[in-house]
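Appendix B, Record 12. Input sequence as logged:
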Amino acid sequence: MPLQITPKNISIRAGEAQAFQAAGAAGTVTWSIQPHNGRIDPNGVYRAPILVLRNANVIVQAHDETQFDAANVALDPGWFWLHLVGLYWLAWATVLLAVLLGRWDLLCPNCRPADLPPQTIIFGEGEGNVKPMSTAHEIQRAATKPRAKACQEDGTPGTSSLIALIAVAGALGGLIHGASSFAIFAGNRAFQSSWTWWYVLRPVVGAAVALVVYLVLRSGFGGDLALTGADCLKTAGFAGLIGMFAEPATLKLKDIFNTMFTPREDPRK
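Logged structural output:
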């Protein structure tokens, strides 16, 4: 009976072990691996390296006095990328929540002018002289106080604040979508490392698509989403939804583009 190794083809993750059996050996079996990625003991137990950054194959070889056989081990880097992407999501969530909760006044400044101090009529110093209850110094300081740079002349937040708010909310929406998908696939042990960049770019894509959709709508191809007063919450919610559903939003943008620039009878269709 010829020498045969079992199993012949397997796939394992970093740090996992697999025992091989050599049937039909005519003498003592000597085990070896090529390349030297991991280790195998004299009993035929192969242990993968602790860190696997990319897909790799290891050939497990068995020799007796006259015979030879080999098996293939595919090293799956999913374990490493699984934990790296998990930490990546936690970092993104921490940064976005810190910006939204700690810097909301910068993203959505209160551009409405402050109410003037109450006035009272003082008699006995002329005909109904009107003087504010606050001091003259306070009145002068309030009148000469410059408007916040984040506010425009019409009382709406500036362009930089608007873009930052939409980008942060869109990234948060992309984070929710990507993290939910990642948790499902990781829980089902179906995570594939080839999809790592899809997960990494979800917040970036969410922010970019939210900005483009918002600009398209504000340019007149949809409803007017003016950012005034309490509309910051409406705008942030809208951008978050676009970030969560970036793919359907992109398809809608394609429909708008085809309607505007592609003739109905274009033979290139």
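The two ends are 64 Å apart (CA to CA).
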